[in-house]
């Protein structure tokens, strides 16, 4: 009993110490702002947040927020361990836009790059920082998303990234995995990063139908993309889409990238892909971890300041994992060899065409 009493006393002392330490953390009032921050160096980012939400992202999970997340990947993945080329998450896609925005893989990024350059210049921020900040804010605009880390203080890029560092959707899985491995990412981390496609849409794969979503709930950060890519293609088999990098989706109005289709079925990635289908928490945690790694590629994190408190807290999603109307487990093309695809409910009603993502306000 005496030992239990001593342990209880020690626990009480530790709790009191932690409480007293917490009380010592003072928030500072940010100048010319309604906000406070634990680190005064983060105050200016609240002004950037307001500017972004009003003039670029429109505080919605729409086309601009999708593009803000896309440019995060396209800028940061310009990094190679083996060739020692590319600065990673350094904003080179804006600073050296005359070069990088001409790369075929970066088609369609020029608009968000120009918008972010304007905001960065107005607030005296580097392009590497504005890209990563806008990406985190854009994700936060989507219900169900994790709240991503944001570190500030990246120096300006010194050179453009080399061409060929951004994987293309028409490339074989082995080529895509090799490129990601060269940047330091495992197959599982690549699949986690592709959770980004839950809020994505294509403008340039087929220019006649801009804003074509990759899943049926592009305004939510949910697991539907990992379910719907596993459905069999039209006529029971995956046909080749009419445009390079596209595979026919069995859902009207939805686009399936060839790379997503193949990664969902490849032995190296299929089980990770399937594991996210009905596990939103797992998808979010793995996506946040992979993004934490991606956003500091090529950077010395000891020189960066954690300003994650500026990132808005995302709303909860109201979507639960389901099959679209008319689809069931019988329509799944099983690919994971060690576990069966989870049983999910089917959305009631007749099958409907998925609406395109509208342009921003």
Automatic annotation (TrEMBL):
Record has Transport as a keyword: no
EC number(s) on file: 1.11.1.-
CDD domains in the cross-refs: ligninase (cd00692)
Keywords from the UniProt entry: Calcium, Disulfide bond, Glycoprotein, Heme, Iron, Metal-binding, Oxidoreductase, Peroxidase, Signal
Domain called Plant heme peroxidase family profile: residue spans: 109-340
Protein's name according to its UniProt entry: Peroxidase
Binding site for Ca(2+) 2: 198, 215, 217, 222
Family the entry assigns: Belongs to the peroxidase family. Ligninase subfamily.
Bound cofactor: record note: Binds 2 calcium ions per subunit. Binds 1 heme b (iron(II)-protoporphyrin IX) group per subunit.
Residue numbers binding heme b: 197
Single GO MF descriptor: heme binding
Species per Swiss-Prot/TrEMBL record: Rickenella mellea
Keyword DNA-binding part of the UniProt annotation: no
Named cofactor requirement(s): Ca(2+); heme b
SUPFAM superfamilies according to UniProt: Heme-dependent peroxidases
Site-annotated residues for Transition state stabilizer: 70
Pfam families named among the record's database cross-references: peroxidase, Peroxidase_ext
Signal peptide boundaries: 1-22
Alphabetized PROSITE patterns for the sequence: PEROXIDASE_1, PEROXIDASE_2, PEROXIDASE_4
Residues passing through the membrane, by range: none
Cystine crosslinks: 30-43, 42-307, 61-142, 271-336
Residue numbers annotated as active site: 74 (proton acceptor)
Biological processes per GO annotation: cellular response to oxidative stress; hydrogen peroxide catabolic process; response to reactive oxygen species
Binding site residues for Ca(2+) 1: 75, 88, 90, 92
InterPro entries with a match to the protein in the record: Ccp1-like, Haem_peroxidase, Haem_peroxidase_sf, Ligninase, Ligninase_C, Peroxidases_AS, Peroxidases_heam-ligand_BS
């Amino acid at each position: 009993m005496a030992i239990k009493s001593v342990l209880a006393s020690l626990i009480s002392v530790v709790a009191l110490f932690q409480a007293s330490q917490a009380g010592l953390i003072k928030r500072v009032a940010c100048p010319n702002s309604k906000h406070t921050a634990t680190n005064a160096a983060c105050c200016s980012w609240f002004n950037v947040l307001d500017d972004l939400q009003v003039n670029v992202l429109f505080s919605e999970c729409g086309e601009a927020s999708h593009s803000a997340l896309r440019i995060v990947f396209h800028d940061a993945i310009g990094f190679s361990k083996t060739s020692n080329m590319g600065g990673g998450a350094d904003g080179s896609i804006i600073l050296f836009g005359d070069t990088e925005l001409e790369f075929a893989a970066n088609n369609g990024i020029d608009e968000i790059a120009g918008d972010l350059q304007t905001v960065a210049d107005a607030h005296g921020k580097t392009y590497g920082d504005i890209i990563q900040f806008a990406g985190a804010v854009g994700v936060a605009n989507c219900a169900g998303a994790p709240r991503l880390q944001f570190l500030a203080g990246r120096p300006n890029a010194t050179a453009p990234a080399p061409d060929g560092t951004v994987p293309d959707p028409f490339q074989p899985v082995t080529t895509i995995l090799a490129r990601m491995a060269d940047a330091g990412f495992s197959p599982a981390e690549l699949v986690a990063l592709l959770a980004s496609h839950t809020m994505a849409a294509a403008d340039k794969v087929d220019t006649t139908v801009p804003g074509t979503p990759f899943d049926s709930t592009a305004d939510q950060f949910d697991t539907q993309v990992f379910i719907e890519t596993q459905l069999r293609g039209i006529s029971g088999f995956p046909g080749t889409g009419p445009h390079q990098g596209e595979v026919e989706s069995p859902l009207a109005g939805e686009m399936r990238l060839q790379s997503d289709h193949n990664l969902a079925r490849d032995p190296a990635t299929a089980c990770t892909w399937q594991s996210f289908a009905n596990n939103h928490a797992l998808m979010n945690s793995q996506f946040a971890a992979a993004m934490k790694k991606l956003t500091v590629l090529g950077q010395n994190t000891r020189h960066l300041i954690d300003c994650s408190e500026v990132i808005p807290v995302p709303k909860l999603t109201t979507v639960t994992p389901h099959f679209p109307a008319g689809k069931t487990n019988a329509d799944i093309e099983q690919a994971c060899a060690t576990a069966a695809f989870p049983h999910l409910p089917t959305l009631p009603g007749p099958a409907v065409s998925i609406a395109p993502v509208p342009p921003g306000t």
